């Protein structure tokens, strides 16, 4: 997987440089708020969602500038969700991406507003003609991202997650919660690349199915890391769900069955990419990375 590791690193660097240039500088009357947005957005994230957008779009030789700006918009939405998820009224976490969470580093009100700022800034990025010359494509991207992130997408998943033990040991409810909380944004990340690349229907469907399975496997691995991982690797607190009475794949299925399902989903995800042949090497290797990740 060294080719993949290099590509992930290169993508993360490109995204960091682009976000640094795109985000407003921390100056003037709003310096504290803007500094907080930059603290979180420029932290050491894996940039997996941007990677998916860029790799999926590159299958169709899509414009790299459009892919990178769209990838940055998605990363802003993802970062906002992490900031809000860490707040005392949600998961109340002290550590994220290996350093203090935003409300610990700044304060709660600033963290809330920085999340709001990143969420709205994402849509400003997508609406800008620099992201894509075709206004219809920009509208399609904005609509799809707002659906994925909004009250019938990620926000709904987070609301279900906050219900905690009320979900009970119901695998269907846990799967739905995770599909919404994590899966839909990963799906959009892949779908956006195919949209910008104007992929054909069969190719777009294959990629979307891949993203569906990868998203679920990603969340299952996250639950395994919560149960078995170590803070030194994950850069965030572990054993959170079990100690807080939260329900996840591991609490419902146990580690063994969760790991088996990760294996099945990973194999299935790879199979969806057969239509692309060896061109999809990076997306194929990304499945192994997600399954084997320790952070
Ligand atoms: C607050 C509306 C709202 C939503 C929050 C994404 C989310 C919903 C909560 C995050 C809680 C969490 C840890 C979910 C598990 C899956 C996940 C999104 C992990 C973090 O993503 P990574 O591993 O993080 O890609 P990095 O830091 O690498 O970007």
The main sheet orders its strands as 1-2
Bound molecules: geranylgeranyl diphosphate
- CA-based gyration radius: 18 Å
Shape: globular
Give the terminus-to-terminus CA distance.
16 Å
Overview of the structural elements:
The radius of gyration is 18 Å and the shape is globular. The chain has a two-stranded antiparallel sheet. The protein contains 15 helices and two strands. It has helices at about 1-20, 30-40, 50-60, 65-85, 100-105, 110-125, 135-150, 155-165, 170-195, 200-230, 230-235, 240-245, 250-255, 255-270, 280-290; strands at about 95, 100. The chain starts with a helix and ends with a helix. The chain is an all-alpha fold. The longest helix is centred in the last third of the chain and has 28 residues, at about 200-230. The structure holds geranylgeranyl diphosphate. Geranylgeranyl diphosphate binds near residues 48, 154 and 181.
Which key phrases capture this entry?
two-stranded antiparallel ribbon, 295 residues, 72% helix, mainly alpha, binds geranylgeranyl diphosphate, 15 helices, globular
Task: Please write out the topology.
Blueprint: H1 2-22, H2 31-41, H3 48-58, H4 64-86, E1 95-96, E2 99-100, H5 102-105, H6 108-127, H7 135-149, H8 154-163, H9 171-196, H10 201-228, H11 231-234, H12 240-243, H13 249-253, H14 255-272, H15 281-292
Antiparallel strand pairs: 1-2
The structure holds geranylgeranyl diphosphate.
